[in-house]
């Protein structure tokens, strides 16, 4: 790859939405894709066990509009990983990402996730086995250390060895995973963030694509990171406040900002709910739960959210719920307009 091809390749990871179990499912990604066309979207982690023993369609089905979309795998057995990577490619995913950052007990018992950072040789074997099977990029998402290991050498050695197996893209959640004593949620909040280690990785491995993740919320923060690394991955902020992504295509890809208004996006989601109900029997509330952050910070948002999450409305068709949500939103906005002009 020459320098120009290399920078085109890296651009693919400039902005991404993180893999989030139970959150970044296909419905959530459909919403995010209505807001931004270029941002890379990640599935929730799917374990190799779930894919080989369960129903692949349930885990892998996605909408054509979701591209570019990456499948995140959880597992450690190279042969199983290779089989699942192949499945992912066959289903049309654009990337296979290996989870080396999840600290949950369940994942540790399965000996994958963050504890794999202790076994760079095994990760390298997994990456190699997957690359032998698929043509799409095989990437790794990891932490900067585990437990009390704070040294840069630990993560540099991990990245060095895994890159020798052919992994060219590393997504660095810039905090340690503490494998004992913290819940997964605490592990996203308590170990301190050290972006400087991710920046150092980019300096020491300039040929690799390095994206940084963890605690990033504002355009100013994203811009600062992009001075040092190739990409930014955003998790919770994108989920709680998806409209922040409305100008990402313009800001980070030289395209145009989202052409749809929030009202149009909400209506497009109602169309999608109706389609999903017919095609797959999905209830509207399994989809609507992902858009509760859409009106973040707006007048009327609270009552609008209450309608879309009201259990009593579950039997109603999506479009009727939409009409009720719209009515309370407009009412609150009108009230605000009246008091402003009074
Ligand atoms: C609800 C939830 C589920 C998550 N599930 C996964 C997962 O399946 N795989 C993974 O690599 N990280 C997972 N993460 C971690 C995120 O990908 C990300 O690394 C973390 O939230 C830090 O980024 P943020 O501060 O932008 O949210 C999850 C995070 C949340 C909030």
Automatic annotation (TrEMBL):
Residues 17-311 form the DUS-like FMN-binding domain. Keywords: Flavoprotein, FMN, NADP, Oxidoreductase, RNA-binding, tRNA processing, tRNA-binding. Its cofactor is FMN. Coiled coil: none annotated. FMN binds at residues 19-21, 72, 141, 173, 213-215, 235-236. HAMAP family: DusA_subfam. PANTHER family: FMN-LINKED OXIDOREDUCTASES SUPERFAMILY PROTEIN. This is tRNA-dihydrouridine(20/20a) synthase. It comes from Malikia granosa. The lineage of its organism: Bacteria, Pseudomonadati, Pseudomonadota, Betaproteobacteria, Burkholderiales.
């Amino acid at each position: 790859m020459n320098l120009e091809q290399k920078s085109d390749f890296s651009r693919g990871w400039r902005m991404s939405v993180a893999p989030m179990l139970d959150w970044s499912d296909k419905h959530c990604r459909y919403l995010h894709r209505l807001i931004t066309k270029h941002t890379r979207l990640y599935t929730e982690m799917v374990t190799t066990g779930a894919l080989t023993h369960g129903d692949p369609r349930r885990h892998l089905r996605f909408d054509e509009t979701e591209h570019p979309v990456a499948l995140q795998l959880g597992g450690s057995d190279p042969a199983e990983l290779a089989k699942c990577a192949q499945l992912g490619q066959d289903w049309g995913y654009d990337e296979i990402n290996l989870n080396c950052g999840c600290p949950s007990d369940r994942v540790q018992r399965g000996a994958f996730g963050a504890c794999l950072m202790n076994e760079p040789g095994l990760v390298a074997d997994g990456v190699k086995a997957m690359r032998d099977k698929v043509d799409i990029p095989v990437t790794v998402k990891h932490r900067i250390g585990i437990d009390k290991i704070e040294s840069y050498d630990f993560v540099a050695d991990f990245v060095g060895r895994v890159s020798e197996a052919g992994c060219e893209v590393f997504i660095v959640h810039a905090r340690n995973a503490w494998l004992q004593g913290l819940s997964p949620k605490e592990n996203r909040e308590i170990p301190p963030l050290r972006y400087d280690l991710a920046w150092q990785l980019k300096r020491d491995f300039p040929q690799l694509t390095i994206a940084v993740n963890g605690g990033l919320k504002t355009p100013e923060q994203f811009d600062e990171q992009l001075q040092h690394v190739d990409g930014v991955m955003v998790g919770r902020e994108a989920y709680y406040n998806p409209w922040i992504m409305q100008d990402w295509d313009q800001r980070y890809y030289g395209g145009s900002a989202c052409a749809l208004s929030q009202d149009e996006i909400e209506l497009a989601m109602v169309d999608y709910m109706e389609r999903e109900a017919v095609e797959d029997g999905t209830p509207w509330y399994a989809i609507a739960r992902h858009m509760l952050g859409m009106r973040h910070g707006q007048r009327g948002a609270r009552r609008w959210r209450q309608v879309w999450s009201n259990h009593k409305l579950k039997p109603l068709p999506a479009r009727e719920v939409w009409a009720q949500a719209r009515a309370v939103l407009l009412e609150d906005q009108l009230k605000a307009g009246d008091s402003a002009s009074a």
